[in-house]
Design brief:
about 375 residues, NaCa_Exmemb, Ca2+:H+ antiporter, mainly alpha, globular, potassium:proton antiporter activity
Length: about 375
């Protein structure tokens, strides 16, 4: 008996190969406007394909390991894009990591969470999730953000919002310890805190569809790696166009970080919203909070190591406006997650905070 492949599956299988071909044809060249547009489309397709194959692998290993696979895959893309844009140096390179990580945190904690709460509550009236697991994840994200993004503004060893080498090493090590500790809790000790709860029967975990075969999983793993390589290379080709486009529309150069975060998180946003509409809001929160955590806990250490070879300062400290938005997000997020259930009101609150972040990024 043969299984019929859906058009989505065929497209996801072809895109990484096509993206690698596009990379081979454009590497080392300066593409014109038309080719830049084509590369942008291929890059977006490669990101979508990467996350699709990460979802296949995630489905095979099950929750909450699946959300971890997706978060790590997205973070690899994010780190690659950041370092690619930092290598040439120039204006805005020193603060690019901060701008991108902060944008990822605001997009996940407000944009993705808000959309998922709204999508789930509009369909089911009220959405349920595990407050224990989600609250622990938010606490870890808040600690990571405070240590890596807020403290540099107030340290005195270096002028400006910058860590000294010793402080940066401590922040990177602390980020890895916190992230590893959370993963251990999520996948070993307290897995039940991160499994879905249905609205029909609170306390009963949702069942999953049949997992893919081992052969399909290994195929997706190979295509995932190919897509990630293509994303890294095509980002290098596309990076001058991203910065030129931001300047052309008159936005602050820091908005480049927002563009990067939106690019890498767009597919994951779709996955999280689909989970919410299937009455699996806990998976949506795992994706959102896990991505925010990985964005700080893995990106900051990777950038800290990269600074051994990169020239120039690394500005990590947030400004006053960003600090206020982060504080408000953590407070509101705590109030949202503590009850273990939410309505469309909480979704709208988070979406308004996300709108405020985007507006103030354009018009600081």
């Amino acid at each position: 008996m043969t299984t019929r492949r859906s058009p989505l599956m065929v497209t996801a299988n072809v895109l990484p190969v096509f993206a690698l071909l596009a990379l081979a044809l454009t590497w080392g060249r300066k593409p014109g406007p038309f080719l830049v547009g084509v590369v942008a489309v291929v890059l977006g397709g490669a990101v979508l394909s990467a996350v699709h194959h990460a979802e296949v692998v995630a489905h095979r290993v099950g929750e909450p390991f699946g959300s971890l696979v997706l978060a790590v895959a997205v973070t690899v893309i994010e780190v690659a894009l950041i370092i690619t844009l930092m290598v040439p140096g120039g204006e805005g390179a020193s603060s690019l990591a901060r701008d991108t990580v902060f944008a990822a945190v605001m997009i996940t904690l407000n944009g993705i969470v808000g959309l998922c709460l709204l999508a789930g509550s509009l369909r089911f009236g009220e959405t349920l999730f595990n407050a224990e697991g989600s609250g622990a994840a938010l606490a870890t994200v808040a600690s990571l953000a405070g240590l890596s993004l807020v403290l540099p503004t107030f340290t005195t060893s270096r002028p400006g919002p910058e860590f000294s080498p010793g402080q940066l090493a401590f922040a990177a090590a602390s980020s890895l310890v916190l992230y590893a500790s959370f993963v251990a809790v999520q996948t070993v000790r307290h897995r039940d805190f991160f499994l879905p709860v249905t609205t029909a029967e609170p306390g009963i975990r949702a069942e999953h569809a049949a997992p893919p075969t081992l052969r399909a999983t290994l195929t997706s793993l190979g295509l995932l790696l190919a897509a990630l390589v293509a994303v890294v290379g095509l980002a290098k080709v596309e990076s001058p166009a991203i910065e030129s486009g931001v300047r052309a529309v008159g936005f602050p150069l820091s908005f480049v970080g927002v563009v990067i975060a939106l690019l890498v998180l767009a597919p994951e946003t779709l996955s999280a919203v689909r989970a919410a509409r299937r009455d699996q809001l806990q998976i949506s929160l795992n994706l959102a909070l896990g991505s925010a955590m990985a964005s700080i806990g893995l990106t900051i250490p990777a950038i800290a190591v990269a600074m051994i070879w990169l020239d120039g300062p690394l500005l990590l400290g947030l400004g006053a406006t960003q600090t206020v938005l982060l504080t408000l997000t953590v407070v509101v997020g705590t109030l949202t997650l503590v009850p273990g259930r939410a309505t469309r009101l909480q979704g709208m609150v988070h979406l308004v905070l996300f709108g405020a972040f985007v507006f103030l990024s354009i018009n600081p």
